[in-house]
Amino acid sequence: MDKIKIGIIGFGNVGKAVLEVIHNQPDMELVGVFTRRDPKQLHISDIPAFHIDDVKKFTDRIDVMILCSGSATDLPTQGPEIAKMFNTIDSFDTHAKIPMYYESMNNASIESKKVSIISTGWDPGLFSIHRLYGEAFLPQGKTYTFWDLVLAKDILKQFELFLV
After folding, report:
1. E strands within 22-150?
2. pTM value surpassing 0.85
3. Which helix (H) or strand (E) holds 8?
């Protein structure tokens, strides 16, 4: 059986976690990690590391590129460019900008005849699936997300400051 050839763009916490997951998948092979930094700074001895400018050289060697860059500034520009060359998966998580990001990724993927799966991290992603299950079983229940609770606490703290 041929292994799925994987590339990782970005090597922060998410990229490092993806690396560990790939190492545990017998049907996947990591081709390399791509970074904006000097690849020698990654300190990974058993995995080839490349500068992101070299990504175009790998279009015939990578089946899926996993985008592990940041949602705030990196993915909105990197994502569509990479989607023109590779099938991609990412964890874009800026909720308010998902429709815009979806449109740019969808357009790039259609143009290149590639597949891009977006927003598959924790939230949106796995946490969203947990909420879906909960709402399916308890349709009259009240759904709170982690972010709802954090936001509510922040609002209460700021309100308390006004009362002091």
Report:
1. 28-35, 49-51, 64-67, 87-90, 116-117
2. no
3. strand 4-9
Structure tokens at 143: 């759904």
**Counted domains in the chain:** 2
Same domain, 31 and 112: yes
The total number of residues shown for the chain amounts to 164
Main-chain dihedrals φ then ψ at residue 11, nearest 5 degrees? -135, 45
Same domain, 148 and 105: no
Coil, strand, or helix at residue 66? strand
Question: Are residues 27 and 77 both part of a single domain?
Answer: yes
Amino acid present at 30: L
**Phi/psi at 108 (5° precision):** -65, -40
pLDDT tens by residue, the chain, 164 residues: 699 999 999 999 999 999 999 999 999 999 999 999 999 888 787 889 999 999 999 999 999 999 999 999 999 999 999 999 999 999 999 888 999 999 999 999 999 999 999 998 877 777 777 777 878 888 787 776 655 555 555 555 555 554 54
Locus of tokens 């990724």: 105
Residue 59 in tokens: 């279009």
The two three-digit tokens of residue 5, written as one number:
């050839």
